[in-house]
Amino acid sequence: MYEYFPGNYRWSFAVHNTLRCGGQMGEIDRALRPLLEADSPSAADWGEAWAGAGDEQSRLGEADLARGFEISAGERFLRSSVYYIAAERQMPHGDRRSEIYQLSLETFQRGVKLAGLPWERVEIDSPDGILPAMFLPADGPGPHPTMIFFDGFDITKEIMSLTVRDSLKRRGISCLVVDSPGVGEPLRLRNVPSRPDYEVPAGAFIDYLETRDDVDPDRIGVMGISLGGYYAPRAAAFEPRIKCVVAWGAILDWGATWQKRWATRSTEVSVPLDQLMWVLQKDTMEEALERVKEWTLVDVLPRITQPALVMHGENDRQIPLDDAYKAFELISSTDKELKIFTLADGGAEHCHSDEPAGAINYVSDWAAEKLRS
Questions:
Q1: Sheet holding 144-150, edge to edge
Q2: Where do the Peptidase S9 prolyl oligopeptidase catalytic domain residues begin and end (predicted)?
């Protein structure tokens, strides 16, 4: 993986994530070069650098809008949202972080509207309260097959909508990109923690999709990226209405993974380690490490009988490749596939952020094969 910040995995990985959802290298370099040249840049410095990139694109978007260039302005606002969320994900908790998150939401919605994207914000009733999502429709009246797309540990529906964009749509599949317990708006605005029994929010999402005339209720799949590689398989194991499942980055025993991370104080994690306390809404790391033991798929994966795809990077430094092999072997489905993205072919890092295009197309082709047949 190219490291914009040599020796700093976390910040370099974040640069790749931003490129994946539409960031432009020149804009990024203009914002981050002062950090690269500074002696000891802090997390606060990081946040302000990215926020500056978001401010710049918002200002330029306003200039485009003043000239009547709505689509150009919309694309600017979408990139502004990407840069604001890149800032927020690494910043210290506090009012400034909350302010920047709000800016990311506002610029995203404005960008979607001005750019003419046919995406619909929806709010779904669940046992955890309202769960917001973006519905990315396939073309035509339908009913269409639909994939539910779960975020990971530190990402949001805005980031993932801009990652998948029209990849599924072009294959005749709609996508419901969700902020579920422990991520996005539920975590940031209402302090809703993650939960191990993710079949519960998954069930609420399916209940909602079944009310839509443009969704085929007999062709609903689920996929999840990063920690979503726990959420999606857990949901599929206990929710029979799910017809296929993708772990976009394998998870086997997330609790065991966290014990190792904390013991070594790993720096090869995409956000600061104390995010675990926030996601689980625990006051101490000891409490969080005890709670996270419940996030294991060892006894769950054998329950999966639907078509299943596990994708993993050969050089994933956050989740060991061996976990992907073990997870795949435990799945009971007779229609299952393990796709390893290698160093030679690209996309070998965690969730293929180093070269994402191949993975995005691969998962979209696989979903089309399973849901449109």
A1: 120-124, 131-136, 174-178, 144-150, 215-225, 245-248, 308-313, 336-341
A2: 204-347
Say yes or no: 143 and 77 in one domain: no
Q: Are 10 and 318 in contact (CB under 8 A)?
A: no
Return the axis-axis angle of helices 43-66 and 70-88, rounded to nearest 10°. Answer: 170
Average pLDDT of the segment spanning 188-197:
98
Q: Which of 2-6, 79-83, 132-136, 297-301 has the lowest mean pLDDT?
A: 2-6
Q: Is 94 left (phi over 0), alpha (psi -120 to 50) or beta?
A: left
Q: Are 252 and 327 in contact (CB under 8 A)?
A: yes
Q: How would DSSP label each residue in 288-348?
A: HHHHGGG-B-TTTGGG--S-EEEEEETT-SSS-HHHHHHHHHH---SSEEEEEEPTTTS--
- Asked if pLDDT for residue 373 goes beyond 70, the answer is no
**What average pLDDT does the segment 82-93 reach?**
94
CATH code of the domain in which 159 resides: 3.40.50.1820
Residue at 18 is within a domain: yes
Helix, strand, or coil (residue 202): helix
Those residues whose C-beta lies under 8 Å from the C-beta of residue 127, and which sit 6 or more positions away, are: 200, 201, 204
Whether 1 is covered by a domain: the verdict is no
The angle that helices 9-20 and 25-37 make with each other, rounded to 10 degrees, is 170
Arithmetic mean of pLDDT over the chain: 96
Q: Find, among 253, 245, 250, 238, the residue nearest to 297 by Cα.
A: 253
Q: Is 4 a member of any domain?
A: no
pLDDT of res. 140:
84
Count of Cβ atoms closer than 10 Å to residue 219 Cβ: 18
Both tokens assigned to 247: 């772990």
Q: Looking at the structure, do residues 190 and 86 belong to the same domain, yes or no?
A: no
Report yes or no: 310 and 279 within 8 Å, Cβ to Cβ. no
How many independent structural domains does the chain possess? 2
